[in-house]
């Protein structure tokens, strides 16, 4: 797995900026600082994110279809593309995880490219958000899936429960694996 650049020091100006402005667009910060998106995420206050191993990629992807309407985001230097709707189920084949959406979102994902998953809860554009974010070995974002909102534009409580349960389960699995290998 490729090594990422060293993280900024815990007392760095970037950490201070993100503590004061946790709702900034992280991709823009990564560009400004010339570091990976994952490095920026790791500079956010710890209460905003939990990182688990990318080996859980298929577990997360297979859980998402039961959540209902979510927002899937692909954010690159050239486009921010959003899809609101259910995340489709999928299956592995020919080296890909093939999304089986008959309408709406579909595609072919490379599971081995996902090395890190971040469960993030933070303000963005003046609203609280919760998302699953997927990163490759270089620390660049693959895509994000945001918890949906109800009619009052509040985060859906049923999805937040799924989000928290999945985060806690995968965090515990990673902890057990680290303990077993120590």
Written overview of the protein:
This protein is α+β, with helices and mostly antiparallel strands and 182 residues long. The protein is 29% helix and 31% strand. It contains 5 helices and 9 strands, in the order αααβαββββββββα. It has helices at 13-20, 26-33, 37-41, 57-63, 157-181; strands spanning 49-53, 69-75, 80-86, 90-93, 96-99, 107-109, 114-124, 127-136, 141-146. A hairpin with a 2-residue loop joins strand 7 (114-124) and strand 8. The chain is globular and about 45 Å long.
Please describe the structure with a list of short key phrases separated by commas or semicolons:
182 residues; alpha+beta; 5 helices; globular
The fraction of residues in strands falls at: 25-35%
According to DSSP, the number of beta strands is 9
Q: Ends: how far apart?
A: 20 Å
**Order of strands in the sheet with the most strands?**
1-7-8-9-2-3
Largest sheet: 6 strands, antiparallel
The whole-number mean of residue pLDDT values reads 92
Helical content band: 25-40%
Give the topology string: H per helix, E per strand.
HHHEHEEEEEEEEH
Q: Please tell me how large the radius of gyration is.
A: 16 Å
Report low-confidence residues grouped into runs of 5 or more.
Answer: 1-5
Which structural class is indicated by helix and strand composition? alpha+beta
Q: What's the shape?
A: globular
Number of helices: 5
Fold blueprint:
Layout: H1 13-20, H2 26-33, H3 37-41, E1 49-53, H4 57-63, E2 69-75, E3 80-86, E4 90-93, E5 96-99, E6 107-109, E7 114-124, E8 127-136, E9 141-146, H5 157-181
């Amino acid at each position: 797995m490729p090594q990422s650049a060293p993280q900024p020091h815990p007392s760095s100006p970037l950490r201070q900026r993100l503590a004061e402005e946790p709702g900034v667009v992280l991709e823009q910060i990564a560009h400004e600082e010339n570091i990976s998106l994952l490095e920026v995420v790791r500079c956010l206050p710890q209460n905003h994110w939990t990182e688990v191993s990318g080996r859980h990629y298929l577990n997360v992807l297979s859980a998402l279809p039961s959540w209902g309407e979510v927002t899937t985001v692909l954010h690159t230097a050239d486009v921010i593309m959003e899809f609101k709707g259910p995340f489709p189920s999928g299956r592995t084949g020919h080296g890909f995880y093939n999304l089986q959406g008959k309408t709406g979102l579909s595609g072919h994902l490379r599971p081995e490219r996902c090395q890190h998953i971040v469960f993030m809860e933070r303000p963005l554009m003046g609203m609280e958000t919760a998302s699953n974010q997927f990163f490759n070995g270089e620390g660049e974002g693959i895509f994000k899936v945001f918890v949906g909102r109800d009619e009052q534009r509040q985060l859906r409580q049923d999805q937040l429960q799924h989000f928290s349960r999945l985060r806690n389960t995968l965090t515990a699995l990673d902890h057990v694996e680290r303990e077993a290998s120590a």
